[in-house]
């Protein structure tokens, strides 16, 4: 950012503590103030436009100014601006959206439970897993297996499930009962001479050996994103999830699919689990559930889990869990309209049609000397920077990724640096021509980043 700070930047520095940020650096350099949005673009306080290459935070699937969603929120606000679902109360929008989620979700989803965020959805998942096993008299079956580089949120348990160091640092996390198994990243994690099939077999074996070491009677659930988002857009090898699900079934372990990024068309199917070929016991949903126009998340559970939990509420008198804004009528109304629009535009089909053009740009850029690997499925992808295309990475990680993101920002594209990977996840309403616009400045930005890295000694 240029100095001096604008008045709005100065006010921000005096009012806000920002997530995922160095507060000292922000006070010195200022923040980027975004004032409005239109289609796939957002505009800063100076009026400069940017293609939002990450849909905000992987979430604005319908872009940044959908008039139907705005009007739906206004109408519902005028009719019933707030009500709750506690102690036997309900409202039509919560019921209707739950019915529509059940129609879309794979497997035998029987009940839907609402929250406000993906973090809360995954927190709910773990509380449900513990409640479920207590209901069955399995009071030691409580450990949850996540994965290194997973991202499942920032509340106490969901941050513990997250397998990224910065989410734990000085928060006294992870908490007990949480374990992390191997990351399914073949390019980065394969041993010399190992084939993709051999790599997959090895990390599935790691999972089973962890279960046996912990004791199968102590492991309640395995939680996974179909495609790992904040861990670097890691696409698992073919056959990985079917093998992991088979191990989970073998030891009577719940399979939780975190669809917060992958759900509602992003991968070319309604749910990422469908794209990756597995069924789950339960599904976490958020972000694109409302196009992120309002905060809303949901957990869908299967028939067996619903039956056990509901029976247990009769035995002990309550299901003592919930959120004030879970199932908020305005959020649910916007969710209903969002799903209606996804159906109308055939969001999964649209993504499948656009995916080859999106992939072609990433694959082309993989030939750049600074790029080690391109990864993609549907309309989510990443470029990972590497010295000499080596998966070992840079001696000082996390320098080149942010530099490339800054070069792209100066060229009118907002992306997300994840250490030395750059993530792309544009709104699903993007056109083929806009995909070309999104990637048009990337090669020049890579060239500039490479020149900077050489000058700074990051490339030897």
Automatic annotation (TrEMBL):
Keywords, ordered alphabetically: Aminotransferase, Pyridoxal phosphate, Transferase
UniProt-listed Pfam families: Aminotran_3
Gene Ontology terms: biological process: biotin biosynthetic process; gamma-aminobutyric acid metabolic process
Alphabetized CDD domains for the sequence: OAT_like (cd00610)
GO molecular function term, any single one: adenosylmethionine-8-amino-7-oxononanoate transaminase activity
The keyword Iron-sulfur is annotated on this UniProt entry: no
Family (UniProt): Belongs to the class-III pyridoxal-phosphate-dependent aminotransferase family.
PANTHER family to which the protein is assigned, alphabetical: ADENOSYLMETHIONINE-8-AMINO-7-OXONONANOATE AMINOTRANSFERASE
The protein's name: Aminotransferase class III-fold pyridoxal phosphate-dependent enzyme
Species whose genome carries this gene: Amaricoccus solimangrovi
């Amino acid at each position: 950012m240029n100095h001096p700070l604008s008045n709005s930047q100065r006010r921000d520095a005096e009012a806000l503590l920002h997530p995922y940020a160095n507060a000292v650096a922000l006070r010195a350099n200022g923040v980027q103030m975004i004032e409005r949005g239109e289609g796939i673009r957002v505009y800063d306080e100076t009026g400069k436009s940017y293609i939002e290459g990450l849909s905000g935070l992987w979430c604005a699937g319908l872009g940044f100014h959908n008039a139907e969603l705005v009007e739906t929120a206004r109408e519902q606000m005028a009719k019933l601006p707030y009500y709750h679902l506690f102690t036997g109360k309900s409202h039509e929008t919560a019921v209707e959206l739950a019915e529509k989620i059940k129609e879309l979700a794979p497997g035998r989803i029987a009940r839907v439970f609402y929250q406000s965020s993906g973090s809360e959805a995954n927190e709910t998942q773990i509380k449900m897993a513990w409640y479920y096993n207590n209901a069955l008299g399995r009071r030691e079956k409580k450990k949850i297996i996540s994965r290194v580089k997973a991202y499942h949120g920032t509340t106490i348990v969901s941050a513990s499930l997250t397998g990224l160091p910065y989410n734990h640092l000085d928060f006294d996390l992870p908490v007990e009962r949480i374990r992390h198994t191997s990351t399914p990243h073949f390019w980065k994690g394969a041993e010399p001479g190992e084939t993709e099939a051999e790599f997959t077999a090895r990390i599935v074996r790691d999972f089973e050996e962890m279960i046996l070491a912990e004791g199968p009677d102590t492991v309640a659930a395995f939680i996974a994103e179909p495609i790992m988002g904040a861990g670097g857009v890691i696409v698992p090898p073919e056959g990985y999830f079917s093998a992991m699900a088979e191990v989970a079934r073998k030891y009577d372990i719940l399979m939780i699919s975190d669809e917060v990024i992958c759900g509602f068309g992003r991968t070319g199917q309604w749910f990422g689990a469908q794209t990756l070929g597995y069924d789950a016991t339960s599904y976490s949903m958020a972000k694109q559930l409302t196009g992120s126009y309002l905060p809303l998340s949901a957990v869908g559970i299967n028939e067996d889990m619903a039956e056990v939990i509901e029976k247990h509420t009769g035995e002990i008198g309550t299901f003592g869990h919930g959120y004030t804004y879970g199932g908020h009528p305005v959020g649910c109304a916007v969710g209903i309209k969002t799903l209606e629009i996804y159906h109308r535009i055939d969001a999964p089909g649209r993504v499948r049609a656009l995916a080859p053009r999106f992939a072609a740009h990433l694959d082309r850029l993989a030939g750049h000397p600074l790029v080690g690997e391109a990864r993609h499925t549907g309309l989510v992808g990443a470029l990972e920077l590497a010295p000499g295309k080596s998966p070992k990475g840079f001696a000082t990680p996390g320098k080149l990724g942010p530099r490339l993101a800054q070069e792209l920002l100066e060229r009118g594209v907002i992306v997300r640096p994840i250490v030395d990977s750059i993530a792309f996840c544009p709104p699903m309403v993007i056109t083929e021509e806009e995909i070309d616009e999104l990637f048009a400045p990337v090669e020049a930005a890579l060239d500039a980043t490479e020149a900077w890295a050489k000058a700074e000694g990051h490339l030897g």
